[in-house]
Amino acid sequence: MKQLFLCSYFAGVKDLFQNYAKQKGLSGHVLFIPTAGNAEEYTGYIDEAKEVFADLGFELDVFDLAQSDRETAQAKIFQTKLLYISGGNTFYLLQELKKKQLLGLIKEQIADGMVYVGESAGAIIASSDILYNQIMDDKTAADQLTDYSALAETDFYVVPHVGEEPFVESAQTTLDTYQDQLHLLPLTNSQAVIVEENEVHVREEAK
């Protein structure tokens, strides 16, 4: 059964994820992929996400796709029951996933019961195509990427960081540009969308 937990800012939905993990009986090991952050100057959100998992008692296997060969990357994905993919540059992330031929494998593992947790870029690649995110992210960070098709695990397209600095303008422009073309799902930094097979629920962190 498809099980997705998608958000803008993982540290901003810590309690939501804690409740989700309890409901799912999640514990132990998480495969933590910070690769999208390689193309960004600021990566504090990645350290914060690590802290959240550690605080909740998870054992982190931090694994950068860009530093790995294809066989090792595929083996890691195949063996994990809980996959987290961080925020950063969505185009760079997709490029590295395609280089290692991981999209099909991730889809297979999701279908087989693996829980997928995506933050910002990690949430955006759950959609069928990431080109709509070109306003928020720099496409030139992925100079080898020519095909923007992604996981296609959702029929909606997450727009992260709505109303949140420093993304207020770029997020709103994305909404204005694509709202008549795509089923956009805007998320603030305190919201998450939980997908259970064909059910979609947006949740908000309690203040």
Distance between the termini: 31 Å
* Total count of helical runs of at least 4 residues: 7
Secondary structure tally: strands = 9
CATH architecture: 3-Layer(aba) Sandwich
Q: Helix coverage percent of residues? A: 25-40%
- Number of domain modules: 1
| Lateral arrangement of strands in the main beta sheet | 3-2-4-5-1-8-9
Major beta-sheet overview? 7 strands, mixed
Question: Which ranges are low-confidence, i.e. pLDDT below 50, for 5 or more consecutive residues?
Answer: none
Q: What class would the helix/strand composition place it in?
A: alpha/beta
CATH domain class name: Alpha Beta
Mean pLDDT score, rounded?
Answer: 96
CATH superfamily descriptor:
Class I glutamine amidotransferase (GATase) domain
Output the helix-strand order: EHEHEHEHHEHEHEEE
Organism: Streptococcus panodentis
Pfam families: Peptidase_S51 (PF03575)
Family: Belongs to the peptidase S51 family.
Keywords: Hydrolase, Protease, Serine protease
